[in-house]
Design a protein that fits this description.
This protein has about 325 residues and is α+β, with helices and mostly antiparallel strands. The protein folds into two domains: about 160 residues, no CATH class; about 120 residues, Cyclophilin-like (Cyclophilin, Beta Barrel), CATH 2.40.100.10. About 15% of the residues lie in helices and about 30% in strands. It has four helices and 21 strands. A hairpin with a 7-residue loop joins strand 14 and strand 15. The chain is elongated and about 60 Å long. About 45% of the residues are buried. The mean pLDDT is about 95.
Length: about 325
């Protein structure tokens, strides 16, 4: 099946890339996972247009692109509210929309969140690298979407429109409370340091990106004791470097690290961080592994039910 021209890129936006759930299976070779920063919004976008959850989407950061539609296509836009519009008219988010050739999809003023996801019914035609469509600029996988690029794909047949109800749509706040599983380097933190970490508000530094969110403590630095061996870094790990200011490691994180880790953000709260803007506020509280697992199951059940409703509607 030959791919079709889906979009002409009239404007690129600040940082627009292709992402899926990530490049798994290669961390032992030093290859970062990458993938969507907000995996919840990403998966919902795909479900709304009738795709498999891991199909590649466009991840848009803060300022969106301007895309000229070149063939009939169904899209869904989820995540950050960057005021998406078609031909100058604001369109609803978190539901599927049918677009026609000549339509102009563009974005207005930033309203909330940081990252939006554009899914098309079908699939974007972009190269698989080590089994993933995810862009990782630092590692040399893929590239930024640029002005005058052409985006090809395999549009699916038109399906019934489908969307989330208001109460199911996330709210992206500029001040968040995040759950953390403590460890694995508890012995490198005194009780005083631990209390300081869990009783402080932190500010997101402007020097934050897809690799990591640098935080600045309002009550001073978090002290560590001794050194640790470099070990594997999961999504959401919270490192404490020598300056005592935490770093939350995100989608494009390195595969290993040697700074003590005070905890890891639970998977169900990672979207909150991915959507937190520079100068946003964050505080942490500890929870058990069992509670974190319950939250992960709850989120997966929601996505599974949404997927089932979409399939039944087709």
């Amino acid at each position: 099946m030959k791919s079709q021209l889906i979009f002409n890129v009239n404007k690129a936006g600040v940082y627009t890339t292709f992402q899926d759930m990530g490049r798994y299976g290669y961390q032992r070779f030093g290859v970062p996972v990458s993938g969507a920063m907000d995996t919840f919004a990403f998966q919902v976008a795909n479900i709304l247009v009738g795709n498999q959850r891991n199909e590649g989407c466009l991840e848009v950061t803060l300022i969106g692109p301007e895309l000229e539609v070149k063939c009939p296509v169904t899209v869904a836009i989820t995540g950050a509210n960057l005021q998406p519009q078609v031909n100058g008219e604001i369109i609803p988010m978190w539901q599927s929309i049918h677009l026609q050739p000549g339509d102009i999809l563009h974005f207005g003023r930033h309203q909330s969140g940081v990252r939006a996801y554009i899914a098309i019914g079908g699939a974007f035609d972009c190269p698989l690298m080590l089994g993933s469509k995810s862009t990782d600029i630092k590692s040399g996988f893929g590239k930024l979407i640029e002005k005058e690029d052409t985006i090809y794909g395999y549009p699916a047949q038109k399906k019934k429109r489908f969307g989330l109800s208001g109460q199911s749509i996330p709210i992206y706040d500029k001040s968040i409370d995040v759950a953390v599983i403590e460890g694995p380097h508890q012995e490198n933190f005194t009780q005083k340091a631990r209390e300081s970490f869990f009783n402080s508000f932190f500010t997101v530094d402007t020097n934050s990106n897809r690799m990591g969110y640098r935080l600045k403590a309002e009550n001073g630095s978090i002290e560590t004791i001794g050194d640790v061996w470099s070990d594997a870094i999961p999504f959401g790990s919270i490192q404490i470097p020598p300056n005592g200011q935490p770093i939350i490691l995100m989608a494009d994180r390195q595969t290993t690290g040697g700074y003590p880790r005070i905890g890891t953000v639970v998977s169900s709260d990672l979207a909150k961080i991915a959507q937190l803007p520079p100068q946003g506020k964050i505080c942490f509280h500890p929870i058990s592994i069992e509670e974190a697992q319950d939250r992960a199951v709850e989120m997966e059940l929601f996505l599974w039910c949404l997927e089932k409703f979409r399939q039944d509607l087709n």
